[in-house]
Amino acid sequence: MDTIELRRIARIEDGNWWYRTRREALSAELLRFSVPGTAVDIGAAAGTACRVLAEHGWDATAIDLSPAAVELARAHGVEAYQGDACYLPLPPEAYDLALALDVLEHVEDDGRAAAEIARVLRPGGTALVSVACDMALWSAHDVALGRVRRYSRRALVDLVEGAGLVVERVWSRGVLLRPVLRLRRHRTARREDLAPLHPLVNEALRLAAVLERCPPLCGWPGTRLFARARRPG
């Protein structure tokens, strides 16, 4: 991701429905922890997730392959370092929580990246992963974003378990919006998630994302998959 796109994201993410709902999903997961600990965000971009972690009392570190992303994260007060998801510049068993949000679909050797997530987690530590799902949704949009794959639910579980982690839950996001997004993304490769939106449209999209958190919608096919997994202790 280049510097221009990173700065575009930094400008819109506080208000944009997609980035807001991702932050809300992370905050909801953090409520599961009685005591905050140490966390690493792999593929952290501008460090937004680390700022959410800090708000919840976590000691968070950002890792990103892009020097521009590291610079931007540091400018926002985040402890950030340059590193490859497949070769994390981190000691083993150092973190209570590892995030890889919208990262693995961009990595050629996703098995290696998943193994690195497991390596840096302490025994009993938690991994939270999100990925683009379902190759039936593959379009020029994915190519424009530099993705190399989309995942089925089975493929994501196999990847995480293959790294030695125990999957606790897998759920979908983008369920209600899947038909609309599928139509738009097969028509254009434009980064519509970075395009300006009318405030009413933005709020309607956010509310749709909130509604789909309720069972059984989170079990239906969507546009993204989340997985929570634990390193055996």
Q: Which key terms come to mind for this protein?
A:
Rossmann fold, alpha/beta, 9 helices, single chain, transferase, 233 residues, SAM-dependent_MTases_sf, 7-stranded mixed sheet
Structure characterization notes:
- The protein starts with a helix and ends with a strand.
- With 233 residues, the chain is α/β, with parallel strands linked by helices.
- It has one domain: Rossmann fold.
- A 7-stranded mixed sheet has the order 3-2-1-4-5-7-6, with helices on both faces.
- The chain has 9 helices and 7 strands.
- Keywords: Methyltransferase, Transferase.
Secondary structure elements and pairings:
Blueprint: H1 3-12, H2 17-30, E1 38-42, H3 48-55, E2 59-64, H4 67-75, E3 79-82, E4 95-101, H5 110-120, E5 121-132, H6 140-144, H7 153-162, E6 166-173, H8 178-187, H9 199-211, E7 224-230
Parallel strand pairs: 1-2, 1-4, 2-3, 4-5
Antiparallel strand pairs: 5-7, 6-7
Give a quick summary of the entry.
Helices cover 39% and strands 21% of the residues. By secondary structure, the protein is an alpha/beta fold. α5 (110-120) links the parallel β4 (95-101) and β5.
Oligomer: single chain
Q: Find the CATH superfamily.
A: Vaccinia Virus protein VP39
CATH hierarchy, class = Alpha Beta
Spatial arrangement of strands, main beta sheet? 3-2-1-4-5-7-6
Strand content: 15-25%
Average per-residue pLDDT, rounded, comes to 86
Q: What CATH architecture label applies?
A: 3-Layer(aba) Sandwich
Task: Could you tell me the CATH topology label.
Answer: Rossmann fold
Gross geometry: globular
The parts where pLDDT drops under 50 for at least 5 residues are none
Q: How would a textbook summarize the main sheet?
A: 7 strands, mixed
Helix content: 25-40%
Q: What count of helical segments does DSSP give?
A: 9
